[in-house]
């Protein structure tokens, strides 16, 4: 039986370190290299997880290899706790998300209001580069990814992680050699990754960002524009059991889900198909049209466009596309999660930033502080996916979530162990605050 995920409207479920990811771990604007991302000073200082020779399990990360995300001896029986010794600050939980474009790790301890981040890591690895054309992962992409995963293994070991769940998504789902690569990861790093189903990925993404849902509306569209796929999830807060507690301040995110789909398109695959470096108004419209065609059967089956007439609704986006748009709109000299996460955007503002980027050259997009070289060929593909969503389901505002799958994993693990607490907090002030419709 699933544990009901009760979340407080507008409450932040964790206390973050400054921006959660250290600049040297983010690699946000690092120059690209034909040989893959270069190790930073922090990465080089990290102890190697294990030998890179096949079959080596002598390194510290080998303790994570017996079961996906569960160290040996960490007994787990539904709602029981992992039986590990830990410091006075409580056990450390881990969530690793290996996506088509990024490798991300989040480590946290339970706190009085959700959890407190103790370390994080994010690196663009483009594991799914070329998969849409070849059907297989490239050796260069796998090498970049293994380098990033060794850093993650070192962090898991240094922080004495008690329980972790480590997952791979679309690139490993669709690549013919995806399962073989998961075995290679296990052999080279000791990390045992599981390949998520699209439905599980969608539900975890909702779990991770649902505290940003405005409980006063009737419908919420949650979307996650990834590198190789895009998850679309509709929440109906009028459903029986969707709202809990007084004044409807608490929602059960799982009970509120009424429909979802996973589109086989993301920023990497769309950019590869339509040349993300050299985007013209014509090719941008072609990208939008291709995504609209993928959305059409889902809309025909559920008719949300008709349901939304004269009903309060807002969008909730958890992806690099919406966080990048927010960072540009705010004029940030460098990306700052603390200023972006939870911000409300009006649709005309989104359209303004999209038009601005469409008028820029590839080099000009590289010069944007919140884009950089590693995202300059992907950002307009993400804007095209977002534009297709907005044309099909018009809304006045969109809330930005710099959180999602990893936070959903951590929340679920802590709930299973009975250590999750999502306390109420005052509604945070900020631009465009209030009810959307």
Task: Describe the fold and architecture.
With 437 residues, this protein is α/β, with parallel strands linked by helices. Helices cover 36% and strands 18% of the residues. A hairpin with a 2-residue loop joins strand 4 (102-111) and strand 5 (114-124). The radius of gyration is 21 Å and the shape is globular. Mean pLDDT is 80; it is low at 1-85, 245-249, 424-430 and 432-437.
**Cα separation of the termini:** 35 Å
Roughly what fraction of the amino acids lie in strands? 15-25%
Largest sheet properties: 6 strands, mixed
Overall structural class, as computed from helix and strand content, comes to alpha/beta
Shape: globular
Assigned CATH superfamily of the largest domain: ATPase, nucleotide binding domain
Total discrete domains: 2
What fold name goes in the CATH topology slot of the largest domain? Nucleotidyltransferase, domain 5
Could you give a quick summary of the protein structure above?
This protein has helices at 23-26, 41-45, 131-134, 139-158, 170-174, 178-189, 198-209, 253-256, 267-274, 281-302, 304-307, 320-330, 337-340, 347-358, 362-366, 379-392, 405-416, and strands at 6-8, 14-15, 93-98, 102-111, 114-124, 163-168, 194-195, 219-225, 230-236, 243-244, 250-252, 257-263, 313-317, 344-346, 397-400.
């Amino acid at each position: 039986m699933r544990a009901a995920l009760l979340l407080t409207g507008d409450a932040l479920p964790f206390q973050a370190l400054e921006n959660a990811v250290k600049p040297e771990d983010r690699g946000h604007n690092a120059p690209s290299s034909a040989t893959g991302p270069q190790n930073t000073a922090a990465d080089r200082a990290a102890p190697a997880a294990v030998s890179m020779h096949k079959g080596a399990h002598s390194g510290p990360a080998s303790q994570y290899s017996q079961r996906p995300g569960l160290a040996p001896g960490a007994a787990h029986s539904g709602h029981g706790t992992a039986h590990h010794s830990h410091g006075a600050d409580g056990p450390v939980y881990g969530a690793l998300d290996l996506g088509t474009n990024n490798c991300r790790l989040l480590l946290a301890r339970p706190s009085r209001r959700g959890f407190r981040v103790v370390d994080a890591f994010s690196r663009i690895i483009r594991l799914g580069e070329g998969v849409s054309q070849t059907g297989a992962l490239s050796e260069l992409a796998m090498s970049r990814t293994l380098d990033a995963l060794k850093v993650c293994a070192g962090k898991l070991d240094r922080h004495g992680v008690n329980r972790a769940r480590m997952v791979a998504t679309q690139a490993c789902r669709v690549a013919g050699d995806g399962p073989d690569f998961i075995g290679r990861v296990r052999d080279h790093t000791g990390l045992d990754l599981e390949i998520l189903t699209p439905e599980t990925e969608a539900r975890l993404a909702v779990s991770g960002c649902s505290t940003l849902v405005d409980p006063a509306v009737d419908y919420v569209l949650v979307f996650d524009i990834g590198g190789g796929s895009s998850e679309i999830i509709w929440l109906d807060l009028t459903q029986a059991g969707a709202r809990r507690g007084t004044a409807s301040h608490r929602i059960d995110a799982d009970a509120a889900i009424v429909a979802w789909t996973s589109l086989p398109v993301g920023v990497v695959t769309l950019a590869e198909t339509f040349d993300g470096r050299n985007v013209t108004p014509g090719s941008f419209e072609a990208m939008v049209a291709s995504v609209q065609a993928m959305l059409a059967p889902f809309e025909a089956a559920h008719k949300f466009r008709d349901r939304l007439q004269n009903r309060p609704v807002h969008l909730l986006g958890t992806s690099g596309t919406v966080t990048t748009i927010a960072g540009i709109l705010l004029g940030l000299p460098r990306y700052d999660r603390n200023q972006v996460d939870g911000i409300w955007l009006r649709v005309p503002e989104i359209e303004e930033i999209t038009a601005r980027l469409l008028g820029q050259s590839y080099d000009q997009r590289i010069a944007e502080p919140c884009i950089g070289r590693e995202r300059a060929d992907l950002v307009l593909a993400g804007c095209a996916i977002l534009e297709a969503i907005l044309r099909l389901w018009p809304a006045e505002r969109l809330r930005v979530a710099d959180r999602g799958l990893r936070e959903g994993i951590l929340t679920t693990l802590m709930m299973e162990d009975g250590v999750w607490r999502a306390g109420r907090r005052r509604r945070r002030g900020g631009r465009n605050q209030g009810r959307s419709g």
